[in-house]
Amino acid sequence: MTWISISALAVAAVAFTYSKLGYVAAQNLSLPLPIQGVAGQFVDPLSFAVQGNSGSFRNSSFKQVFNPTSSSPPFFQVFDPAFLSILGPNASIRAIASNPSFAFAHEAPIWNPSTDEIFFASNDGGALGNSDIDHNNVVGKINLADALQALSASGNQTSPVNVTVTELSLSDTIQMTNGGTGPHRGNLVLINSGRGELPPSIALVNPQEPHNSTILLDNFFGRQFNSLNDAKVHPISGKLFFTDVTYGFLNHFRPAPLLPSQVYRYDFDTGAVRVVADGFDRPNGLAFTKDGKTAYITDTGASGGFLGLNQTQPATIYQFDVDAKTEAFTNRRVFAYVDTGVPDGIQVDINGNVYSGCGDGVQVWNDAGTLLGKFFLGTTSANMAFAGKGRLVIMAETAVYLAQIAAEGLDLASFS
Questions:
Q1: How many Å apart are CA 202 and CA 177, to the nearest integer?
Q2: From CA 166, how far away is CA 162, in angstroms rounded?
Q3: Where's the SMP-30/Gluconolactonase/LRE-like region domain (predicted)?
Q4: Tens digits of per-residue pLDDT, 309-356?
């Protein structure tokens, strides 16, 4: 295989490598390479297209990552020159908080612009989550100004830092938080999977102390949801769309399912709720393009909780048209199938590029479904959130990473 280290090449050499493959991206190749002490790899797709009879093949997408050079993460893995425009000339990625004994940073990342804090939830029912049918998970937050100050004071551009994670004291009506979005009209929107007979719910939570909360929805016409997973507000209509899946049951903290695994639409003003998409194995992450005309749903069917891992099941991102009148999801098609783990949480930037947390970190595609590159962590990321222009905060179970890049995410707080 031909693996090329970013730090070892000049731009001209990179341009030569990609000109052999027929890529036309001169505007990207002219950018300075994002070194900043972070290792990077340009990957020639033709170099691994044929492994041969004596090739070294992966047998598991869950236990083996695609890192043949055994580079130490975190680093940027570049499959297409367009990824350089996302990274920018001074890209860096570093851990800003970690706790090897506790999966404190699993899901539900929400950036609150007014305080520059990132909120998130610990693992609910999984490894190192310290939560189960008898114990709730926790929601925490990090002050990003503190993180940036610690990074600046560290004296180099590669060493991790470990800033304080503050746990929130929330109402016991909020059980097993797994998703989140907003802020919506000043409040965090928490998507809760429920625990035991305590129902899954959607809640508004004040990002300021005392973090008072209001439950908006906890049933579908009298039946409890299975275990709510993730959500986004539609950028045009302001309605909330959310996924419901069976992971609470599959992770032993919820009863047997009562409903199909599907996607719903909720009206903040009227309380009306309806199904907008079904036919999934395990619908998970959800995102919209900035014009609201296209939706993305991740299906993590290959990850089955106590049923085990099954690589023949979906690890797939589906793309849909959003009906202009009903907002039902139509014209389903495959957008991407991931090579490592499953695609979990999903975000879209202002240029339409799609980001998803996978088994090796965060993978990024353009709007045509071409894999551009990876924020390679060598471990699972379930979700990530943009925190203003040029900052991507990545959840990695026992760690939180901050990638300082050129890309800018959609302004989710404005979708009201």
A1: 9
A2: 12
A3: 203-390
A4: 999 999 999 999 999 999 999 999 999 999 999 999 999 999 999 999
Q: Amino acid letter at 255?
A: P
Q: What angle do CA 364, 393, 225 make, to 5 degrees?
A: 85
Measured distance CA(410)–CA(289) in Å, rounded = 8
The DSSP call for residue 151 is H
- The span from the CA of 44 to the CA of 36, in Å, is 22
Superfamily, domain 59-414? TolB, C-terminal domain (2.120.10.30)
The torsion angles phi and psi of 192, rounded to 5 degrees, stand at -115, 135
> How far apart are alpha carbons 217 and 204 in whole angstroms?
10
User: What sign results for the dihedral spanned by CA atoms 73, 77, 87, 379?
Assistant: negative
Residue boundaries of the structural domains of the chain: 59-414
Cβ neighbours of 36 (radius 10 Å): 18
296-315 pLDDT, tens per residue?
Answer: 999 999 999 999 999 999 99
